[in-house]
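Q: Convert this sequence to structure tokens.
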Amino acid sequence: MTKPYDEILAKSDPQLTLQQHVDDCLLIWGLLQKNFPQISRLSLSYDFWRVLRLAIVCHDLGKGHADFQKLLQNHPNRWRKQRHELFSIPFIEGLQEEKRIRELIRLVVAGHHKDYDQLWKRYICDFYQSENDMFGIPGAEGRVDYEEEFRKNVKTQLLLQLAEEAYHVTIRPFTIEHPEQVILTYQPQIGKMNASNPGYFDLLLLFGGLKHCDHLGSARIQELLQLSETQFQFLERKRTDLQTKKKDFYDHQLACGNVTGNLILTSPTGSGKTESSILWLHQQMKHFGQGRVFYILPFTASINAMYERLGKEMGPEYVGMLHGKLSDYLYDYFDDFQYSLSQKKEQIDALKDKFKTLVTPVKVVTPFQLLKHLFGLKGFEQGLFEMVGSYFIFDEIHAYSADVFAQIKVLLQYTVKHLQVRVMVMTATMPTFLKKELEEAIGEFTEVKASESLYSQFVRHRVELQEGLLTENLDLIRNALKAGTKVLVVCNTVKNAQSVFNELRRDACNAVLLHSAFNGIDRTRHELELKQGEKDGSIQLLVGTQAIEVSLDIDYDIIYTEPAPIDALIQRFGRVNRKREKGQSPVVVFRTSNATDQYIYPNELVNRTIQAFEEIIAETDGIIDEARLQQYIDFVYPDWQLKQKEQFDLIYNSLSVSAERLVPMYRSKLGEEDFYKQFDGIKVLPVILKDAFVERLKQFDFIGAESLKVQIRKNKFAQLLRENDQNLRSESYAIEKKDGTLLEIKYFVLTKKYDAELGLCYDQQEEWIDTSIWL
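A:
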């Protein structure tokens, strides 16, 4: 039966009534209650879900403005790009709620589309006469009287009827307050904002919850997936398989499955830490209930691999991932589906959107996907809402620099203290002083260590120290390849990795190179070759950089590596004889560093690492007893180095303060600058790929075009610009859009050599003809 208020639309394409949209938002509201039960554990001063429902019912009532309705129906109108949420505000004053609740709802409804700063400058000051002469002359040309605009155009009675009949929300007669009052009454509170103050999360989480309901409701999402027993059944199957072979999960894995609350696990590489983490997660779900899961890794190669692994074991629809190279990965992934270009783009966008929203319960991410919310970037309120009652699993947390580790400590401290987050940290090689920092951050925790008997089974590596540089001893590696050995070579720089690969690839049956100086397409291809090589044994030689250190499930017979600190080397060793089926495999470390290595690893740490290995060789003929690794790690890392400690303290102290003072409905521009300046990369286009780049742009294949670029460091970028020899230069390409206007796409072209097998080679000039000089 048609209701009078059915004439009020909320959306135009496709047309959707206001009631349908509110119903969609309330569906999400119901799903949020099931997925975020731990909101009830927070010290909020009101019934969160009841008040959020009221905010949802009221948030779009301003769409009942007559000119906004004409706009949606494509009729002539005088809407003039006003904001509908400003016309929702007066209704809230009529709610039968105490004043502080009305105030909360009013604040979140006003800000649910635009940052308050933007709302004030562009949509209040520019449109409406001020009641208090706050921003110009009353009656100034072009500005309208807000109260008159409301009374004349907003279909108040229909909207009151909608709220009453459809949602049993009674709105009493109200006075029409100028929207400037929302901002003016909020501004004095900003200086007092502090996460430790009562009421802070009352506002922040209500805002985050409303934004999620509005966004997901607008997308007409019908389901937010939850983890159930089904997603954990693979553990039981694995255990049964082991038991049929007279084996079982390791003791530390079973112990993790019995821990409730925060946990730090120390166990060797290749000892089933992933299963340990899911066993722990299962226990948390049983005890605390649903919460979103974040599996946090440092490198994209390991994130891609973990995403595929967990998707296979828990169900692909339950696992997503987020990192800076996600588009490149998905672009290649959808190549197998025979999609047209437009279909492919739609699929990539849809999957990325799904990963970004609350739809996917498990996300494999870099720490920056969580850290950005502490810097107050746009949407931080939604990000913090998603973390309520969530589960963080950190794998090899030691791999980060001092400044990133400081940020992670703040993240853990903040989320454990304020948002009921539970944390599991897994490591094989964490120095004790770093562990103390973590202990301070997460508070109470259980510690689980692999047993001595297990460590005794992990005597799988025999360290050898070789004189000289790795690059000067390639015959040693050639001999191993000739003997049919499966060889891993790890260099500290891309340049050395390229050189070594170039020299050795013809000596191996099949070889792969993996580092950070490939474009997206080639990097993904190399990762797939590596993955396939592990399945069928076709790869005899892998040459890589630090990119292969963490969580890649690969198994080689021997490693030759340039010198590095002990924790990095132990991770590299973990890719050799991983399954302990080869006795004691040699791990060969060259003593001499390259001159440029000092910019990557402090000489002091590398020298102490060599000393530690000399001691191991003297005591045990090089056999590494992994039960004693901690003492060697602490020998190399007795404490923070002075410079690192200063860097750590600076970041930790500043972010601790700023994170506590984030202001809901205001994005932090300073925080945004601080966050993005830590990413040391600018994408450039190798000149050899310019024709392919332009061809993709002509087809509006923007993702494909972007995947041809290579990321280089900012200081390298600045150096190339300074050289002023046209090796790096800015170019642009213009595309005619459907409406006849031109879209100009600017990009940087680099004339250095690029090879699909080697990546970007800084020392070689591409041979090419600059046709631009003829134009």
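Residues 770-775 have pLDDT under 50 and may be disordered.
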